[in-house]
Each structure stands twice: as structure tokens, then as C-alpha cells.
TrEMBL record:
Domain Transcription regulator PadR N-terminal: 12-84
Gene3D superfamilies: Winged helix-like DNA-binding domain superfamily/Winged helix DNA-binding domain
Pfam families with a match to the protein in the record: PadR
InterPro entries assigned: Metal_resp_DNA-bind_regulator (IPR052509), Tscrpt_reg_PadR_N (IPR005149), WH-like_DNA-bd_sf (IPR036388), WH_DNA-bd_sf (IPR036390)
Organism of origin: Dactylosporangium roseum
Name listed for the protein in its UniProt record: Helix-turn-helix transcriptional regulator
């Protein structure tokens, strides 16, 4: 899988880092993690999950039948966790570099955002 990851993919991996989740749970968790900025449609989510499963970054944890419908739960695999950790560190370094430059230039942060 290519890095840097697209934001929706990154957020899916973050959501699965906590516990196995099914599709609707992932859609809701990605929306929560992004403060509503990223809204996944089912087709987009399941396409991303298929790619992540094919890449070995996400696996099927278990399945159950709820109200006559199959509910599949996905989990983060060890390689997925390693990729997520690497992307997180890459982003942390970029934020640190940007923060250092902005402070040196005395650029004030937007009032709704804080620097890390």
C-alpha cells in the first residue's frame, strides 16, 4: 500500500486500532474521529476495506447474523498496526517541522486550532 495514506484510509486504520468493528461502526467512528469532516459512504468504505484486506493490513475478525443480515467485523493486523505507527510518526515529524517554521515566522494559529 502506498504511503502517505489518504486521510479516509488513515482514519479507518485508526478506528480499527481500538477494537474490531463492522461497517456501520466504522462509518460512525471515522466521522467522529474527523469531527464530521470525513463522511464515508458504504461503497467507499467497503472498497477501502477490500484493498486493506488484500494488502494484509486489515483482516476479518468474525461475522454474525443480525436481523437476518450478515455483519462482518474487521480488525487491524500486525502489518496494519506497523503501517499506522509509521504514518503517525511521519505526520508527527511533519507537524513538528511546520510548527517550528510557523513559530519562527510568528504566524499565529487559527483560533480554533492549537499547535502540538
Amino acid at each position: 500500500m502506498e504511503t502517505p495514506l489518504r486521510e479516509p484510509t488513515f482514519l479507518i486504520l485508526i478506528a480499527l486500532a481500538g477494537e474490531p468493528m463492522h461497517g456501520y461502526g466504522l462509518i460512525a467512528e471515522v466521522a467522529r474521529l474527523s469531527d464530521g469532516r470525513v463522511s464515508l459512504r458504504p461503497g467507499t468504505l467497503y472498497g477501502a476495506l477490500d484493498r486493506l484486506v488484500d494488502a494484509g493490513l486489515v483482516g476479518v475478525d468474525h461475522e454474525e447474523i443480525v436481523d437476518g443480515r450478515l455483519r462482518r467485523y474487521y480488525r487491524l493486523t500486525e502489518p496494519g498496526g506497523e503501517l499506522l505507527a509509521g504514518e503517525t510518526e511521519r505526520m508527527r515529524r511533519n507537524v513538528k517541522a511546520a510548527t517550528t517554521r510557523l513559530r519562527a515566522a510568528k504566524v499565529a494559529p487559527h483560533p480554533s486550532r492549537r499547535f502540538a
